[in-house]
Amino acid sequence: MTEALSAEQLNKVMDEADLLISQQEVEAALDTLAEQITARLSKEMPVVYAIMNGGLVVAGQLLTRLKFPLEQGYMHATRYRGDITAQSDLQWQALPSVPMDGRTVLIIDDIFDEGYTLEAVINACKAQGAKEVLTAVLIDKEHDRKAPGMSVDFTGLKVEDRYVFGYGMDYRGYWRNAPGIYAVKGL
Questions:
Q1: Counting Cβ atoms within 10 Å, is residue 70 exposed (0-12), middle (13-18) or buried (19+)?
Q2: CATH code of residue 128
Q3: Within 13 Å and on the Cβ side, how many CA atoms surround 187?
Q4: CA gyration radius, the chain
Q5: Which structural domain, as residue segments, surrounds residue 122?
Q6: What is the DSSP code (8-state) at residue 147?
Q7: What is the pTM of this model?
Q8: Which H helix or E strand runs over 18?
Q9: Which of 23, 35, 68, 146 is most buried (CB neighbours < 10 A)?
Q10: Total domains present in the chain
Q11: Beta strands, E only, 35-169
């Protein structure tokens, strides 16, 4: 379990953080993502899942930009436990809420870091009968630790390999609501 943080400590993290991508740049990337997704899925009537918690913010910003009929569901699968580096096996907090048998599925998440969580979610959707599973992420973190063979179908922006937060990504459970993409000072 991580040490509890005060509002003062959390505000200091924000005050000292490096702004990597401004709110305006994120909004432009969301517009581009929506155009790409619409071009690919406008005739599919897909079921769209946000992976909780980080994917919630991205999906909330992205779904209103998609100009075609879709069904929206949610799921919560995680390997992270609130601190900087802790990872464990995939844990399902909430199973997919909408049946996907024979459907095209779009998974929306905040970040493509190593990809092991996303890979497990894709496999779970296929096991539940999805005819096709596509992925969209706001951020692709650039490094060489990706799951072998793993990639995403739609990517908004790329960031350097730092501890980032904002637009769904968190700093120890906080600052998912930050209006831009920030990196923790020194990390």
A1: middle
A2: 3.40.50.2020
A3: 13
A4: 16
A5: 23-79+88-183
A6: P
A7: 0.90
A8: strand 18-22
A9: 146
A10: 1
A11: 47-51, 71-80, 87-94, 104-112, 132-141, 154-159, 164-165
